[in-house]
Structure formats: structure tokens, C-alpha cells
Amino acid sequence: MSKILIVDDEPRILLLLQSLLKANGYVVETARDGSAALDIVRKGGIDIAITDLRMTPMDGMTLFREIKNIAPSMPVILLTAYASVETAIEAMKSGIFDYLTKPFKVDDLIACLKRAEDRISKSAVTAAISEPSVKYRFENFIASSTLMTSVCETIQKVAPTAATVLIIGESGTGKEVIAKTIHRNSTRARRPWVAVNCAAIPENLLESEMFGHVKGSFTGAVADKEGLFEAANGGTLFLDEISSMPLHLQGKLLRVLQEKEIRRVGGTKSIPVDVRVIAASNVNLEEAVVKGTFRSDLYYRFAVITIDIPPLRKRPEDIIPLARHFIRTEHDGVSPAPEISADAAKALTAYDWPGNVRELENAIKHALTFYRGGEITRELLPQKIAEYKSAQNVPEGSTNASLKSFLKQKEREYIEQILSNTGGDKEKAAETLKVNLSTLYRKLSDD
Predict the structure, then answer these.
(1) According to the model, what pLDDT value does residue 7 have?
(2) CB atoms within 10 A of CB 62
(3) Would you state the pLDDT for residue 330?
(4) Coarse DSSP helix, strand, coil percentages of the chain, rounded to the nearest 5 percent
């Protein structure tokens, strides 16, 4: 049975509708305002939304538009008074699935929900036909390959917990998207999400940004200032490029994770914080530990849960589903989204994507900029992608080919097959390959 979200600023109406729908077998969530409703939608799992038109501070139509930004295919049913029928009809033109005028019959509401469920079923069938390989789909995140399926399964298991998480992957693989997916599928989804790139903040300011400062603690500290940990209290703090954090701050971060309290720069008072930390890095932190640039105790604090994002070139099955996703996201939504021609699809899958998913997204934006109808063809893609010649297509006898590169490629393919067989578990893969874990990481990072 579908999960229904009911939004109304009158508690009496909420309770009545909740009781009616539960009596008819539906799973129900309720919200008394638009902001709370959007938090629930972002968390995921809602199939159909029912909202009153006249609410404050966010009315039903504004809420509808915001829901469409988050979940474009979700049917939204509008409840309106007799005097608002003309407004409701106009809302139908804007994409509202249906509307009911108050007072309404229970049978009419149930019939309306059944029609919405029929639409959802038909949409699911259409999506399955058009993208049969998609196995997992979160908000702004889809996966078809075995490697990414393993990542999605880890996300599902880890998200509801309070564990710290370390995400490893090349630039552009979507580390922040995955971190945000974990947050939105956690019990903290309605609490703050704060993201910071540690490499983008000057070293002399990073401590103040992280932990805050008190007035007069240094030149320019003209007032007390809360840091990112306090801003994220109750929610999730995402620390991108954590390998760039100075060693002395790594020690303070470790203390915060252990003691669950911070001390502002120049302050003497300990402030308790309840923050889930997710960190990300595009470098091998095990190697950083060996080099002495990253604390081993902090690494092991994070490495309990490690999510390794494979580069896009190693999961070609994800390329076309991702491209279609970006097309739907960037398209105007008025006319049907364009399809990708067979020749363009061949070019996309042949390219090696050094910029990973971010580069693919930009390539689709480039194609849509010049799109004028029909299919997206090879000619609409960036020139370096449209004209790319992969190493696999180099003719035999070419001076560009070598025994060393051939053996390296075959070794990489064998390692990936073992990883696939172990469900992405690197420790098991290293054991099967009879190499230590650091050797496996080095071979995976070699290009």
C-alpha cells in the first residue's frame, strides 16, 4: 500500500484524514506546514502528497512547486474550499494531479488515491522499459553497475546509524552527493546539513571556521562566532578533502569525535555537540598515514565505515542511465525529454571520463545548450568526447601500444573481477589475490 503525506495547518483535519486513510490500509505521515512537509519528502519514501491550498506561511501551490523540484513524478492532490475552485482548476493546468473540494466524500478521496497509484504503476513500468539496467535510485543518485550497487547497499545499511563515514573517490565521482544521500536517508534528515571543503579554507582560518571563536581571541575577532560544528548540531557535517586538514587540527577533530564537545578558539568553555561527521578524500588516506600527513588514529576512527567510489571509467554501465538522469534534470520539463542517439551513446561509453560524473553532467549541459530537437547526437557533445579514440581501439602494431600497458590493463580487469565477486570488499579481495591491502589500493589508484 502507498505511503501518503498529508499537509494541513489544522490539527483537526490532519487527525481526521490520517484516521480515514489508515482505516483504508494506507501508511500515513502528516505535516502542519510546508517546511515540515518538504523535510519529509526529502527524506524519501513518500508516494503521494495531499495538501491544503490555504496555509501559512507556505500555501499549497508553493508547496506543490517545491515538491516537484525534489520529486518530479510524485502525484500531488490539492484540497480546497468551494470558493477556490477556479484556483484549483488553474492548479490542474500547472501539473497538480487532482483536487478535491471541501467537504468531500471519503469514497472520492480513496478513488482519487487509486488513480494516483495507477499513474505511479504506469510510470514505473515505463521507467523499467526505458532504463532496465537501473538497480538503485536515490534522489539525484542512480546506479546500474555491480560496483555502484554495492555502494548503494552500503548506503542503505549505514544511513540509519550514527556511525562516522569515510568516502574515498577521485574528484568528480559524486562524494558529496553520496554524503548528502546518507544524511537524507538518516534519522537526522530534518536537522541541519553543513558541508565544507577543508582545502578551500586558509589554514589560519580553518580552526575558527570549524570550532568558532570568542571575541578578542585574535585580530579581527570582534564578536563571538559559532563554528560549523555548532551550526550542524543535531545534523550532519560533511568534511570534504579532509586530507588537507593540518595535523594539529586533525587532533582536535579526533577529540571532538570522541568527547562530543568543542571549545571555541580563545574560549575555556566546552560546548556539547551532537553531530554526525562524514568525511571525504580524493587521495589514499592509508598512504597519507604512512607519509605522516594524516593521523592514523583519526583515519581508523573514520575507516570503520569506508565507501570507495569507483571512477566512472570503471563502471561504464552507469554512463547512459546517468546521462538520461541529467537530461531529465536539465530539460525544461514542458516538452518530452530528448533521447540519446546510438552514435552519441557509443561516444559517451567509449570516453574515459577523467572528470568522472561531474564531467558527464557538464557534457550533457553542453549538448542541451545546442539541442534544437530530435535526438541528442554525437555532434552535440563536446568535441573531445565526440572525437575520442580509446586505447582499446589502437590498431595492432601501433607504437602507442606496449606489452607493459597491455599487462597492466589485464591486471586491472582481473582485480575488478575479484572485487565484483567479493561485493566490493577490498579486504576479501586482497586475501583472494594474496596481496596486502595497501598494495591493492596502490594498484587501484594507478592509471
Answers:
(1) 94
(2) 13
(3) 81
(4) 50, 15, 35
Is residue 337 within 8 Å of 328, Cβ to Cβ?
A: yes
| Long-range contacts, 364-373 (Cβ 8 Å, 24+) | 364/323, 364/326, 364/327, 364/330, 365/326, 365/330, 368/327, 368/330, 368/331, 368/338, 371/338, 373/338
**DSSP 8-state code for residue 200:** G
Contact predicate 431/393, CB 8 Å: no
**CA proximity to 99, closest of 130, 47, 60:** 60
- Euclidean distance between CA atoms 229 and 237, whole angstroms: 7
- Per DSSP, helices labelled H in 212-293 are 228-231, 247-259, 285-291
**Rounded CA separation 111/288 (Å):** 61
Question: What residues form DSSP beta bridges with 28?
Answer: 4
Taking the chain (447 residues) in runs of 10, the rounded mean pLDDT of each run is 88 89 90 91 87 88 86 85 59 76 83 84 49 54 79 87 92 91 87 91 88 86 88 94 93 93 89 94 92 94 90 90 86 74 92 93 92 90 85 45 64 79 80 79 66
What pLDDT sits at residue 136?
Answer: 54
Which secondary-structure segment (H or E) carries 28? Answer: strand 27-31
Cα–Cα nearest to 419, from 156, 149, 137? 149
Could you give the maximum distance between any two Cα atoms of the chain, in Å? Answer: 80
Classify burial at 60, counting beta carbons within 10 Å of its beta carbon; exposed 0-12, middle 13-18, buried 19 or more.
buried
**Cβ-based neighbours of 99, under 8 Å, separated by 6 or more:** 77, 78, 79, 80, 88, 89, 91, 92
Query: How would you label 353-372 residue by residue, b for 16+ Cβ within 10 Å and e otherwise?
Result: bebbbebbbebbeebbeebe
The phi, psi pair for 3, rounded to 5°, reads -100, 125
> Residue 99, class by beta-carbon neighbours within 10 Å (0-12 exposed, 13-18 middle, 19+ buried)?
buried
Smallest CA-to-CA distance from 390 within 354, 356, 416, 426 is with 354
Query: In this structure, what C-alpha cell is assigned to residue 382?
Result: 563536446
What SS3 class is residue 363?
Answer: helix
pLDDT of residue 429: 83
Rounded to whole angstroms, the Cα distance separating 158 from 184 reads 12
Residue type, position 105, single letter: K
Residue 210 contacts residue 258 (beta carbons within 8 Å): no
> For residues 312 and 292, what is the distance between their CA atoms, to the nearest angstrom?
30
Q: C-alpha angle 327/330/335, rounded to 5°?
A: 75
- The SS3 of residue 73 is coil
pTM over cut 0.70: no
